[in-house]
Specification:
- The chain is of the alpha+beta class.
- It has one domain.
- It is built from 9 helices and 12 strands.
- The strands form 4 sheets. Strands 1, 2, 3, 10, 11 and 12 form a 6-stranded antiparallel beta sheet that branches.
- β10 and β11 form a beta hairpin.
- The radius of gyration is 31 Å and the shape is elongated.
Length: about 400
């Protein structure tokens, strides 16, 4: 017996179409999962690459520190500030990474080009030893803030003239806090002093590199707030330090105005490296004399620790008031290292202060600054990008 089955062509086509749609949806899902996985793996790869380049830069920072300490420990003249022409201050190589020593070029506050060198921390005014009168002469220093600084570090509870602040003032704050009545441990501690203003303490130099970067000259369009006048207003952190005090020499008169009988330390400023703004704060000095000293110093080479040239710079003027505060020898060096890994990525930056007064160099300060952003200037960033693009095409 023959059995005949009926076949509905339309139904068969609909079934095949449904299967095709299901297959297409499955294929689309698989493609989507594959693309998502590939996308995730790409970002994982980029993250691993960035981490690798950051690690390279971090090791370059440590290598640059060792190199700088070796230079300082093996100088022919102890206490001298090394000439940047005699060592690798820029584009030093550690493996595939590159480092720079960020310095200052006499605080040229209109420059957009970085200056590379090891710096002298003794070129600044010691925050724990400077008198109220010296502090008041610093650029943009409010008089009441100078008085509050002195009250923060001294041991008594008597407010300084000119707007000082002791325990009663800090007790009225919300939240209240205690006055320290002890020396500053860091310059950043200024922000705890009554009346502290970030604009005064840190100025317009948001990344603390001494350069007038585009975001520091555009008004209030991008942080920090600035006056867009083409001049970088440095904060107090650029002129102050808590390092560099020198032990009192034997035979020094205990009644000398430059003497602290309690801790036996003297305020000394390195005239071979200090800016005019710092020198102008010293007794017997003014802006004109300070500028005269810096201009004459810039015409000299190979100063070492010599200070005899100051007599010539001032054209035999009497500076007996200032002389006890001047030195030509550095005791603490600032090593501000910026580094990048392979292809200019993984930017890292750390600032160190090295104490060279002991038998062995001692790192007394370390501060990571990469969160403050790129610090090597816009032109160097563009040059690095171009260099690495050229290398990739070879």
């Amino acid at each position: 017996m023959n059995i005949r089955t009926s076949c509905d062509p339309a139904r068969e086509q609909r079934t095949q179409g449904s299967v095709l749609i299901v297959v297409m949806w499955v294929a689309l899902g698989l493609v989507t999962v594959t693309l998502y996985f590939a996308h995730s793996m790409y970002f994982e790869f980029k993250a691993a690459q960035n981490n690798y380049e950051g690690t390279q830069a971090r090791h370059a920072v440590e290598g640059a520190l060792r190199y700088a300490v070796y230079l300082l420990a093996n100088q022919e003249e102890s206490g001298a500030l090394p000439d940047p022409e005699t060592y690798i201050a820029e584009r030093g190589e550690v493996g595939e990474a590159t480092f720079w020593f960020l310095g200052r070029d006499d605080l040229n506050n209109t420059t957009t080009l970085p200056f590379f060198s090891i710096a002298d921390e003794g070129a600044k005014l010691n925050l724990n030893l400077a008198t109220q009168e010296m502090l008041e002469l610093l650029p943009s220093m409010p008089l009441d803030f100078a008085a509050a600084i002195v009250d923060w570090r001294d041991e008594d509870e008597e407010a300084s003239e000119g707007g000082g602040a002791e325990s009663d003032v800090y007790a009225r704050l919300n939240p209240s806090r205690l006055v320290k009545n002890a020396p500053f441990d860091s310059v950043d501690e200024l922000m705890l002093v009554h009346g502290a203003d970030p604009q005064v303490v840190y100025g317009e130099d948001a990344n603390m590199n001494g350069l007038l970067d585009p975001n520091e000259n555009d008004g209030d369009r991008t942080p920090p707030v600035d006056d867009a006048d083409g001049i970088l207003d440095f904060g107090l952190v650029e002129y102050l330090t808590v390092y560099g005090a020198m032990p009192q020499e034997e035979g020094q008169d205990s009644d000398s105005p430059n003497n602290d009988s309690e801790d036996q330390q003297t305020l000394m400023v390195n005239v071979n490296s200090a800016s005019a703004a710092v020198l102008a704060c010293l007794p017997g000095m003014d802006d004109q004399k300070a500028q005269q000293i810096v201009a004459y110093r810039n015409s000299l080479t190979g100063l070492g620790v010599d200070t005899e040239w100051v007599n010539e710079a001032l054209e035999e003027e009497n500076f007996s008031q200032t002389e006890p505060y001047l030195t030509g020898a550095a005791s603490h060096y600032r090593i501000d290292v910026a580094a990048v890994g392979r292809q200019g990525k993984g930017f890292r930056r750390t600032q160190f202060v090295v104490d060279m007064t002991g038998e062995e160099p001692l790192i007394v300060h370390r501060k990571d600054l990469e969160r403050r952003g790129w610090a090597l200037g816009q032109s160097l960033r563009e040059q690095l990008n171009y260099d690495f693009q050229q290398q990739g095409q070879r």
